[in-house]
Amino acid sequence: MQGRNWILAGAAVFVGLLAVFIANTWFSSVEKRQEDVVQQQKLSRIVVAMQDMAFGTPLSGQNLKLAAWPAASVPAGAFTSLDEAMKGGRVALRPIVAGEPVLASKVSGPDGRASISANLPAGKLAFAIPINDVSGVGGFVRPGDMVDVLLTRRIPGDGATDQDKMTDVVLEAVPVIGIDQVADEKKTDPAIGKTATLEVDTVGAQKLALARELGVLSLALRNVQDALTGRRPTVVPRQLSANPYYIPQRRTGGAATSAPASRAALAAVMPGLPGVLPAASAPARPKGPTMTVVRGSDSSVYEVQRGH
Fold it and tell me: I want to staple 151 with a disulfide (CB 3.0 to 4.6 A). Which of 109, 211, 230, 252 is the partner?
């Protein structure tokens, strides 16, 4: 009987110790979580914008302030003092909204120069092309947009005329840095510009420089989320109609011009085109003297036979 009591007492002690261990483990984990929360909630003071700032806005005490920020979420490049942020007359290189942290990547260096080159990614160039109200999509192309660049020029070849044009897509999905001298992405109102500055690589800049000399450049506005690119076909005038037609040059005075005179000759120049009109054959010229007979408003020409 006494041995049984010892066994029950030992079991009770074991269960009690186990309960104490489990309780201590649970409370330790709770304390650890609470410490982590406290650590995460520790605040730092960083420089943020007091008001919206556009490209080139100087940083000053009127548009900057120190604000409390979670220490675990302080972004890289944040300034911790106003003097550091305004050192050397820094200016904004990108639009900054009110309440946004002012980062070193969004402002100029201590020299205070606001330049497009400081805002270009590595390996990219800024290249300007001429535009107008039509080629610039009616003024709706603004900084920050994505565009395709189209070239319209004369078809190469000795037989091409000024009416023989072709259009190619030179570049696709090109970011627009600025229109004229405006690089502010927040200015979205339509405005007619004379130049568009595009962000391209070295080969893209070479293509634009050559295309500018060959013909007329136009911009086509695309969705910024549309990253679909690929080889685009060349478009020529005969592709603008579902049923291409051709009118040959008329014959005058019995002398034929250099236009194709038959369907076979035309097919050799423009193969596979339905609905092509063949050149009309000219009437034979009389070999002898003629006489014109007028009946009302109609006139007829008769060949006069010579007597023997």
Answer: 211
pLDDT in tens, 123-136: 999 999 998 888 88
- The arithmetic mean of pLDDT across residues 115-142, rounded, is 83
d(CA 215, CA 222): 22
Average pLDDT over residues 6-17: 75
Mean pLDDT of the 200-229 span: 90
Spatial distance between the Cα atoms of 11 and 153, rounded to a whole number of angstroms: 97
Q: How far, in Å, are 11, 47, 130, 230 from residue 100 at the CA level?
A: 63, 9, 35, 38
Exposed/middle/buried for residue 102 (C-beta within 10 Å: 0-12, 13-18, 19+): buried
User: Longest C-alpha distance within the chain, in Å?
Assistant: 169
pLDDT digits (tens, 9 = 90+) for 271-293: 554 444 444 445 566 666 766 76
Are 144 and 176 contacting, i.e. CB atoms less than 8 angstroms apart? yes
